[in-house]
Amino acid sequence: MNETSPAPTTMDSLPNELFIQIAAHLDIEPPSVAKFAHEPSADITCANETPLKCLSQVSWRWRKIVVPILFRYTRIPLDKNPQWVPIDARLLESMQGQLTKLSCHEVQIYGRMRSKMKSSSLFAFEEAFDDLLINLCRIEDGDEFLKSAPNILWFPHLPPTFADFVRFVRQYELKHHIRSIVVYAEKEYELRHISTADAHLARVVAELWDQIFFRLEPARLVVAAPPATLAGLLDVQMLSSDAWAFDMKIHYIELLQPEPFRLKHRDAFCRPWNAALIHRRPWVHLGYNEGSSISAYSTYEYHLKQSPKMLYLVLVRLAKEVADCCNIRSFSFTGVFPFATNVTTLIKALQRISTLRAVEFQLCSGPENDLLDDPKRMGRAQRDDLWLEWRGSYTAIASFLGTYDFEDGSKFVSADCDAPDITKEVEEYVEVLQKRGLGWRKTGDGSWVRDHSLDREVVPTMANTDVED
Prior knowledge:
Elements: H1 16-25, H2 31-34, H3 51-56, H4 60-70, E1 73-77, E2 84-87, H5 89-96, H6 104-118, H7 127-133, E3 135-138, H8 144-147, H9 161-171, E4 180-184, H10 197-215, E5 220-225, H11 227-234, H12 243-246, E6 251-256, E7 285-292, H13 310-321, E8 330-336, H14 340-351, E9 358-362, H15 375-378, H16 383-403, E10 411-414, H17 420-435, E11 440-444, E12 447-450
Parallel strand pairs: 1-4, 4-5, 7-8, 8-9, 9-10
Antiparallel strand pairs: 2-3, 5-6, 6-7, 10-12, 11-12
Helix pairs in contact: 1-4, 5-6, 13-14, 14-16, 16-17
Protein name: F-box domain-containing protein
């Protein structure tokens, strides 16, 4: 009887369970998580290493295994191409000379605008006419005349490839595998000076979020965009005429849903489930990174400057419009030497949200850059001014920790504590609270937990009590 040798073991002979375990070891932290606390830039979704992508290209079997893991963290870039045209009397006159070449959509626009001009008592070429009756019209396929207009405007909108991505998600049944989405834009919204633009902006932004949330259900959503664009995407104002001084190219906002999702809240009256992103889901965490304020320190009377106020307005809306049952439980703020007045403003808004159980702050540059040693970035800014504002900010934070009614086990984290000198200063602010009888128990470098069992009543001594002579 002939003995037969056993078949050789190959990768293809391994079960899928082992393939999944191998892929899991290559599942590194996504850049949108690793870089969220770094100074904001357009490369928040760019990674130096992409092991899962490489593995997915080895074979069709590996691709089938890897795809559900690979697309857990997804990015959606907004289209850079302008799509809107301001229709005024001058453009209308040009359209009149090419009526036979216009698309059906363009002919409809021409007819509506001609009727509008006839009903106006203003002369069509007067400057006041443009302000009163300017119309913004979206370019559609086939609108060759409008595409050639000299002044085409940009509103935030999804790219044409989004439809292809949705089909891909449906084909591979990835909807429930996608846990995180980063929506990012590099283009600045510049139409705040046109009074008729607000309604169009609100409509296109609502449409954008409608499309995303109708087709996807992320537990985490990050929006990365220039301040003016982010304001539009959040349905708030900037409330600052000093944005030029801060030179903040990009802001980040991060929103997290609880898992499992609170589906019962979708039909409740605990918040206005309207077009605003902050009211699309019952978010439990809000993180924000506004980048560096250092360039503003080089300006005249820098302390009077106001950074963009989108975060403040979002917090105010949460305080006013959301019930405790589905309001945020945790909050994090990252900025590079923000002004103490701006941090104090944020603290005032946070005080009005009664559901916070964890707060985190990072107020100086992180270890990933040497910003303070870069003469070009520092300009005329003085280091003493930067640290003066930093200390003023921590004074406001310490006051918040001492007056807010934190539950037992609530957490405070200072992400600045990566150097001994800074750690010591932050600890001194918390020690002041402890001396006042508030139980904040240290759990690590830059980390404390509210412990009511450590609370004690402090009796004033004669040495620190004012007595009449």
